[in-house]
Structures are given as C-alpha cells and as structure tokens.
Amino acid sequence: MYSNTEQQRRERVQVLAEELYRERRHYLLRIARKNGVNEVDAEEAMNEAFASFIRAFDPDGGAPALAWLTLTLKRECWARYRRLHLDRSAGQEAERGGEGPGALIDSIPSRAGDPAQLVAGIDEARVKLAALKPAERRTLGLIAAGYSYKEVGAITGWTHTKINRCAVEGRAALRETTAS
C-alpha cells in the first residue's frame, strides 16, 4: 500500500500530531476562538486542522510543525466564519416579489397593526430600494443586518472606500426619495 519511506513519514507525522495535540491543545483552541468561531466550531476546526496536518504535513519540508498547524487552523476558522456569514447574507439583492433567499423584507416583523399599512410600507420600501444601485442596496442591507465595514468587505471583496461610498450615496438616495 505505502512504500517504506512513505510509511515511516506517515508514522512520524502521526507521532508529531499526537505530541502537538497533547502539549498545545489549549493554545490552539485559544487561537480558534480568537479567529471568529464559537466553542463547538473551535473544537471542530481544530480537529479538521489536525486531520489536514496528518494528511499533508511534510516533516522533511522544513516548515515548523506548530506554525504549519496554526496557519491551517486559522484558515479553517476563517473558512467556517465566512460560510456562516455568507449564509446569513445570501440573497440580499433578490428581485421584487421573489421567493426564497432574498425575500428577506417579507420576514421582517412590523409594528404596524393594520395589514394594509404593512403591505403599503413594504411596497414603498421596495420601490425606494429598487431606485438604488445594486452595490448600494447590498451595502445598506448588510450594514442594516449588523455587519461592520470590515465584515462587509470580507463578504463582498470590496475596499473600505467603496463600501463607504456605497453607504453614503445609498443613504443620500434614500433621503432624496423620502423628501420628494
């Protein structure tokens, strides 16, 4: 199945992984929690990082084992964080009347007691939002959902300057449509 040298390499990596787990587990969990995941995800991310370490680490490659494992763990945490937040922001630019992801405005509870007022308010909001550029709509939607500029940048891949411009211009356009 494996050549002798490959088998020896795998055994060395296994022993190294066991040693790192025993001696550095708490350190690695702190890193996982610090990089944006909760306690359960931190444990899962650490387990996934160790599995990657055992599969791919080359003890003869010159990379320090702890540094390699730490970077792999951070990348796993960042990927989990992105997946979680991208799921939350999916469909922010859905078409009017759309169903499924993006029909978010229909699920926002209203304080208006009268259903007719609720429908009128939703239609008015959709008309105002439709007047915005797609980037402005997405930026304002993410900011309204509680994301920081840094998080919006991570989700969209945009610079801080573009996010700020979209937010300022989008708010100005909404004020303009409200004033008229």
Task: Please describe what this structure looks like.
This protein is an all-alpha fold. The chain has two domains: 86 residues, Orthogonal Bundle (Rna Polymerase Sigma Factor, Chain: A); 72 residues, Arc Repressor Mutant, subunit A. 72% of the residues lie in helices and 0% in strands. Helix 1 crosses helix 3 and helix 5 crosses helix 7. The longest helix has 31 residues. The protein is elongated, with a radius of gyration of 24 Å. 16% of the residues are buried. About 7% of the residues have low confidence.
Termini separation comes to 75 Å
Q: What is the helical fraction, as a range of percent?
A: over 70%
Based on the structure given, which CATH architecture of the largest domain is correct?
Orthogonal Bundle
Strand content: under 5%
Estimate the mean pLDDT confidence: 79
Query: Over all CA atoms, what is the radius of gyration?
Result: 24 Å
CATH topology name of the largest domain, in short, is Rna Polymerase Sigma Factor, Chain: A
- Biggest sheet, open or closed, and with what strands and sense? none
SSE series: HHHHHHH
Instruction: Report the top-level CATH class of the largest domain.
Output: Mainly Alpha
Output the structural class.
mainly alpha
Overall outline: elongated
The low-pLDDT segments are 91-103
Give me the count of strands.
0
Number of helices: 7
Tally of individual domains:
2
